[in-house]
């Protein structure tokens, strides 16, 4: 991937995490990177194209993270804690989960982006379900759904109230000591 294209994706991801999908324009993005607006249009003709590339990139990145957690950590509780720690970094950077932010602005995204967001959250829930099954949870799918809902909601509250402990406290119920 070209350096300019990578920069566009990186900065756009940060802008979505802090301002939302509708909170910035191509001009804002170009100014933040120090390039011309036309350079963004060269790589992403429409904002919908940029959004799709961002969701695809994050989805692929998280699939790699899930695989690495499965390989590198011995127990499901350790994997769940590592995932929670990953999401905790959003709060420290006063950010929000990009896919969560885009899902909240669903009326503004294309059908292709919506489909990719659905796929992302299904894969996240499937990985979580696998962890809860390994922990002997009978209602593993429901528990995974509650984990995602709690994580997204507590990220929002932690950011709103400026209290990172809200997130950690909310997920505590899902991660055994």
UniProtKB/TrEMBL annotation:
GO terms for molecular function: DNA binding. It comes from the Bacteria. PROSITE patterns: HTH_TETR_2. The keyword Translocase does not apply. InterPro entries: Homeodomain-like_sf, HTH_TetR, Tet_transcr_reg_TetR-rel_C_sf, YxaF_TetR_C. Residues 25-44 bind DNA. Pfam families: TetR_C_13_2, TetR_N. Residues 2-62 form the HTH tetR-type domain. The keyword Flavoprotein does not apply. Keywords: DNA-binding, Transcription, Transcription regulation. PANTHER family: HTH-TYPE TRANSCRIPTIONAL REGULATOR YJDC, TRANSCRIPTIONAL REGULATORY PROTEIN. This is TetR/AcrR family transcriptional regulator.
């Amino acid at each position: 991937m070209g350096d300019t294209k990578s920069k566009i994706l990186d900065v756009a991801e940060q802008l979505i995490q802090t301002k939302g999908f509708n909170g910035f324009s191509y001009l804002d993005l170009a100014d933040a990177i120090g390039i011309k607006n036309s350079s963004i249009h060269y790589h992403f003709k429409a904002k919908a194209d940029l959004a799709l590339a961002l969701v695809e990139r994050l989805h692929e990145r998280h699939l790699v993270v899930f695989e690495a957690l499965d390989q590198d950590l011995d127990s499901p509780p350790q994997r769940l804690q590592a995932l929670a720690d990953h999401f905790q970094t959003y709060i420290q950077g006063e950010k929000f989960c990009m896919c969560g932010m885009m899902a909240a602005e669903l009326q503004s995204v294309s059908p292709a982006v919506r489909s990719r967001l659905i796929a992302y959250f299904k894969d996240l829930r499937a990985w979580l379900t696998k962890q809860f099954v390994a922990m002997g949870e009978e209602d593993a799918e429901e528990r995974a759904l509650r984990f995602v809902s709690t994580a997204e909601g507590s990220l929002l509250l932690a950011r709103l109230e400026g209290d990172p402990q809200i997130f950690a406290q909310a997920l505590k119920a899902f991660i055994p000591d």
